[in-house]
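Table S2 (text version). Query chain:
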Amino acid sequence: MEKGDYLDTNSNPDVILGARIPSLIGTNSKTKVNSQGYVIPYAAGVTRLFVSPKNYLSAIPTNDISLYAAEGVELKQNPGW
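Corresponding structure-token output:
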């Protein structure tokens, strides 16, 4: 199991729960809590799926690639960009 798999809400539904505030159970507070008092930070039905294998890398700015090339260093763009 990869670390990102822990963020998959289908396998780990408790991963999206927030702090536990039992005093809000059964109140009409704007802060929604489940039956155990854990804050529910996302709207009902929101899920997060971790796709494996996948590289979660940002793009390297093309200007940076050009700057390295001017110095004789080959800098390649990250996969998928």
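Notes on Table S2: The chain has a mean pLDDT of 82. The first helix runs from residue 62 to 70.
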